[in-house]
Amino acid sequence: MERRAGPAALRGPGMTAPAETLVHRVCVYASDEEFLRTAVPFTEEGLFLGEPVLLATTPATAELLTGALGEQADDVVHAGDACLDGRPHRAVTAFYRYWKRHSRGPGHARVLVEPVWDGRPAAEVAAWQRVEAGVNAVLGDTRLCIVCAYDARVAGPGVLDAARRTHPSAVAGPTVRPCPEYVDPAELAGAWETGPLPPAPRGVPVLRLDGDLRALRSFTLAASRAAGLTEDRAMTFATAVSEVGSYLWARGGEAPAVRVWHDSSTLTCEVHQPGGRLDDRFLGYRPPGRVAAPDDGIWLARQICDRLETRSGPAGCTFRLHFPIHPAPPP
């Protein structure tokens, strides 16, 4: 991309960051004008420096920024809100792959993202907050510059408080300051995982995984069909469960116990390994690289499922996979 002539203010120290580091900032705003005071210089500076800029926001926010940028808006890549659905871990994958496509260029690859908070169930809000924390650990070796916009008119106090704990710094217009509330991502994830998962329904059949992954697949397929999944979707869910089972079996230790149940909307599978522990709080968040890694299958399971929850403690480790019985309608 050709560098643009631009005002010196865009090259000031407020927005620019060292090119070799991840930058992850929060922008809390209470009006359209406040949003534009940060978003416009962030975008214009990137274009001036020849850095790619990705916009991942709601259509209304994208329209607001596009109007303010004028002709420069043509040089901004619009991801739409496809990566802002109920599966936030997919956003991590999208941002990582965006950086990989541009990693040979100078400087950062910039992302302006605005998670949608209005109307989200509590479980989805928690999943997004976990991803915000995980970005600092999972994407720490990238040259991404991510600004996460939070509309204080929509996001509640709890959401804004979590935002300040998951972003190392905050930006407002040309001013950047450290977030004193910021917490180390692993420590924060550990604090969020202290509560037990709700117990499985009574009487749910149990499969003891002894290494026979075909038996695990058959067990999962039978439960999926009983829940009303189509054959294709049942096979997809069985793939996710098999990846988790394979990961735990390969680690060694006691045989994992597998349970599958459903309600009117969600198929749930729990895989629990007594005595096992998970050392990585963000297991499976990072997309696979060129060299295979043990947690590649967990990444795949996260992509398939709406949510994949984990717990780890003295009693062992637990994976709980949630899969919609009915596919979401196309956008």
TrEMBL record:
Recorded GO MF terms: kinase activity
Keywords: Kinase, Transferase
Domain MEDS: 24-168
A matching Pfam family: MEDS
Database matches in InterPro entries: HATPase_C_sf, MEDS_domain, RsbA-like_anti_sig
Protein's name in the database: Sensor histidine kinase
